[in-house]
Design the sequence.
């Protein structure tokens, strides 16, 4: 990959990208670059960036229950997040939804991954303290905290996506 390919990609500056999309100067080829990079990064980082392994078998049922529940909840969040984002675009100018969507996924997701990695470090430390002091109860509390943090991560991603597309499309009731 040539470094030149990365020169016009927004990794963190969502506001500048929003302005370019709003003015109509952002091209489809640049949106494709954003989609490619976000897909590559998403394969590695679009989950809460902390994994806690427990050695006791009695926690595995809790982990499995939370895993299934997280799959269901994240599916609902993704469905309604994208649906509400689409509606915000339609209530505005109704143009270029997929261009806007594919362009914004990268800087919004990248920024959130950085924030949640920092939060993940704190939660990892808290989980260690909980497990060492409360044993099995600490494990259940730790898994619950990670579940809630992941749901917040997904929700915040789609809220940011919707808000930026609403700004771009001119929809004022965000």
Sequence:
């Amino acid at each position: 990959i040539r470094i030149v390919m990365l020169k016009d990609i927004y990794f963190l500056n969502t506001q500048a990208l929003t302005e370019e999309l709003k003015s109509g100067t952002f091209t489809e080829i640049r949106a494709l670059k954003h989609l490619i990079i976000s897909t590559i990064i998403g394969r590695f980082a679009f989950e809460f960036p902390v994994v806690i392994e427990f050695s006791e078998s009695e926690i595995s049922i809790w982990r499995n229950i939370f895993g299934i529940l997280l799959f269901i909840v994240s599916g609902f969040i993704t469905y309604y997040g994208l649906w509400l984002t689409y509606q915000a675009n339609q209530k505005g100018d109704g143009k270029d939804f997929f261009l806007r969507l594919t362009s914004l996924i990268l800087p919004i997701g990248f920024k959130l991954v950085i924030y949640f990695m920092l939060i993940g470090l704190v939660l990892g430390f808290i989980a260690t303290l909980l497990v060492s002091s409360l044993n099995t109860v600490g494990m259940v509390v730790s898994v619950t905290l990670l579940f809630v943090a992941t749901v917040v991560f997904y929700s915040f991603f789609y809220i940011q996506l919707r808000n930026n597309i609403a700004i771009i499309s001119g929809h004022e009731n965000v």
Remarks:
- The chain is about 75% helix and 0% strand.
- The mean pLDDT is 83.
- Residues 92 and 171 are 4 Å apart (CA to CA).
